[in-house]
Amino acid sequence: MPSNKLQVPRISDAVAASLERRILEGSLKPGDRLPPERELSIELGVSRPSLREAIQKLASKGMVQSRQGGGTYVTDRLESTFFDPWQDMMGAHPNLREDLLEFRRMLEGQAAEWAAERATAADLTRLEQTFVALANAFVSDDLDLRSKADIAFHQAIGEASHNVLLGHLSAALLRLMHDNIRLNLGELKSIPAAGTLLKSQHTAIHDAIRERKPQAARAAAETHIDFVRETLAQSLRSAARRETAERRLNTDFSPSNNS
């Protein structure tokens, strides 16, 4: 005989769901440390035993982990299942870069369009912060700083789209493309107008989102990725030419040819 009793959710389940939602939406990112237990229990209005039980539930799913020396941190599980196998294949199959950029064009075009439609005031504030940081980073010669600022700007757009899957796919893809983004920025330094072009492209995306122009935002994002794709293709061709020239030079002046 079926029971008519109401199933009252456990407090720990509700707390775990709340923390999981923060991870899904990007409020808590991979590598972030959860607030101290006392602070978090006060913030959530629950007892510390209930909080510990909730965190244990997330740990069992691989969403958080405790580290030696103290503290509980968000893992990258939502992104690593996508990232890990592709990272290895990227090194073995350079042609995959073109496919990834093609996919990034589709993803970021849609993200920019939705961001223009859905971004909240807080999203626009964060977009502005990452845009300013990106502009400042591009004044520097530090390629790693510039790469991280570029990724942060595009990730802010992905999260402003308010589509959880798109936000996490964007994060995983940008992480996967980090080395290529750095390579692009290094090659672009040798092109006099490249810095100005990149700045104008980022400005166009930023402005279209802030002005709530979805189609313009999509077009600006796609134009930017088209530029990145062409630049990467040029850099790979340049690298291949340099390697060929060096091999010829080494062959021409090898001991066997000078005897």
Structural overview:
With 259 residues, the protein is mainly α. The chain has two domains: 64 residues, Winged helix-like DNA-binding domain superfamily/Winged helix DNA-binding domain (Arc Repressor Mutant, subunit A), CATH 1.10.10.10; 167 residues, GntR ligand-binding domain-like (Four Helix Bundle (Hemerythrin (Met), subunit A)), CATH 1.20.120.530. The protein contains eleven helices and two strands; from the N terminus they run αααββαααααααα. Strands 1-2 form a two-stranded antiparallel sheet. A hairpin with a 5-residue loop joins strand 1 and strand 2. Helix 4 runs parallel beside helix 8, helix 5 packs across helix 7 and helix 6 packs antiparallel against helix 10. The mean pLDDT is 83.
Instruction: Provide the succession of SSEs.
Output: HHHEEHHHHHHHH
Question: Which term fits the overall shape?
Answer: globular
Mean pLDDT: 83
Helical residue percent band = over 70%
Please describe the biggest sheet, giving its number of strands, its sense, and whether it closes into a barrel: 2 strands, antiparallel
Give me the CATH architecture of the largest domain, please: Up-down Bundle
Overall CATH class of the largest domain: Mainly Alpha
Q: The CATH topology of the largest domain, please?
A: Four Helix Bundle (Hemerythrin (Met), subunit A)
Low-confidence stretches: none
Number-wise, the strands total 2
- The gyration radius over C-alpha positions equals 23 Å
Structural class: mainly alpha
Compute the separation of the termini in Å: 99 Å
Strand fraction: under 5%
Counted by DSSP, the helix tally is 11
The number of distinct structural domains comes to 2
Q: For the largest beta sheet, what order do the strands appear in spatially? A: 1-2
Would you identify the CATH H-level superfamily of the largest domain?
GntR ligand-binding domain-like
